[in-house]
Amino acid sequence: MMLDEASLIALVEHVDAALALQGCDHSLRATRTWALSHAHDPDLLAASLAHFGGYCDCEVAANVRPEVIFG
Ligand SMILES: [Zn+2]
Q: Is the dihedral of CA 16, 45, 67, 37 positive or negative?
């Protein structure tokens, strides 16, 4: 995981909020938007999230668990 714990929590919160408004279009749209606005490379972040089953925004929300990843 390329993000630190605080950043990952912020990402998941952003994605959760975006999903509540507009649902998932089976892309990483909200994830990529967050990456660009927080100076992270969207493609590197996508590759990092894929290791944890986060292939689209709803999978990031469901599968990428900061409390599990960082224990
Ligand atoms: Zn999805």
A: negative
CA 56 from centre of chain: 8
Q: Which residues surround ligand 1, an ion (CB under 5 A)?
A: 24, 26, 56, 58
The four Cα atoms 18, 4, 70, 29 give a dihedral, to 10 degrees, of: 20
State pLDDT tens for residues 20-49: 999 999 999 999 999 999 999 999 999 999
Q: Following CA atoms 34, 35, 36, 38 in sequence, which dihedral angle do they give, to the nearest 10 degrees? A: 80
Q: What predicted TM-score, i.e. pTM, was given to this entire model?
A: 0.95
CA distance 21 to 3: 25
- The Å distance, Cα 39 to ligand 1 centre, comes to 23
**Do residues 59 and 53 touch, judged by C-beta distance below 8 A?**
yes
